[in-house]
Amino acid sequence: MNSETPDEIPAGTPGEPAAEAQAAPVLTPLPLVPGESASYKMPPMHPEGRKFAGIAAVAVILTGFVLGWTSIAWLLAGLTVWIVAFFRDPVRVTPTDPGLIISPADGLVSLITTVEPPRQLLGEGGLTGEPVVRISVFMSVFDVHVNRTPIAGTLTRVVYVPGKFLNADLDKASDENERQYFVVESADGVRVAFTQIAGLVARRILRFVEQGARLSIGERIGLIRFGSRVDVFLPAGYVPSVIVGQRANAGETILARHGGPVMLPGAAQ
Q: Rounded CA gap, 232 and 182, in Å?
């Protein structure tokens, strides 16, 4: 007769409570990060906006002294606050995983379609003539207007085209408005093209970088004043990661990722 009692059964026998206790996961608390607690801070203003904010502030002061603090002075004061907010330049945390294309602009994803590449993007340092998927991001006057490069690489092509100032939300603005084309080539040869397009209120496109510059992903490349749009042309093998109507943040939102053959919207099946 076996004289062993349940208490004498060796620990680790399958099905016994002791074995189950040993298999239970051990939860380790996350390490504490030293520093102050997080709080909201007003994003800094881009230097380009200082002169506009200064002019508006002087107008407020002069109006207040000459006309008194009437509705006109308060209206100008509100305009000054809006200008400061318009030129805000927040810090962004950019994903750096390979195979990602990051949004170059803040705003609304207004269109995803298949197009022929603009002729300004063709040729040396640019794109081929094959149809590409174009993602359009519309920036209202309330969005951040500092634009960033969607991939890391070398700026191989820059073309500025003067034009009209139609509503940037219109599809024909891509061909008729003032605009500036960029092509960035990554270290493995992938070329991503994008376009800054002036809008109905915008009157100047600014560029911070020169052709041949080596850019980090999410690096600031330019700014469009007062309402505009940015078009991004996806290389072969990249699939959109956004949908029409979605909000995007420059330097943070994943616009597309490498995912095999792309089914071009509207293309013949």
A: 10
Residue-level pLDDT at 163: 67
Q: Residue written as tokens 């500092």?
A: 146
Tokens of 260: 């095999």
Is 100-258 CATH 2.70.70? yes
Residue ranges covered by each domain of the chain? 47-86, 100-258
Is residue 207 within 8 A of residue 148, CB to CB? The reply is no
Q: Which of 2-11, 19-28, 35-44 has the lowest mean pLDDT?
A: 2-11
List 71, 136, 228, 241, catalytic entry: 228
**Interior/surface letters 196-223, b for 16+ CB within 10 angstroms, e for the rest:** bbbbbebeebbbebeeebebebbbbbbb
Lowest average pLDDT, out of 111-125, 143-157, 190-204, goes to 190-204
Averaged pLDDT score across all residues of the chain: 79
Active site residue 228: yes
| Single-letter amino acid, residue 242 | V
Question: For the whole model, what pTM was predicted?
Answer: 0.71
Task: Compute the radius of gyration of the chain from its Cα atoms.
Answer: 27
* Phi–psi pair at 121, nearest 5 degrees: -100, -5
Tokens describing residue 31 = 């390490």
pLDDT band at 89 (very low <50, low <70, confident <90, very high): confident
Band (113; pLDDT cuts 50, 70, 90): very high
121, 127 Cβ separation under 8 angstroms: yes
Kindly tell me the number of DSSP H helices and DSSP E strands found in the chain. 4, 14
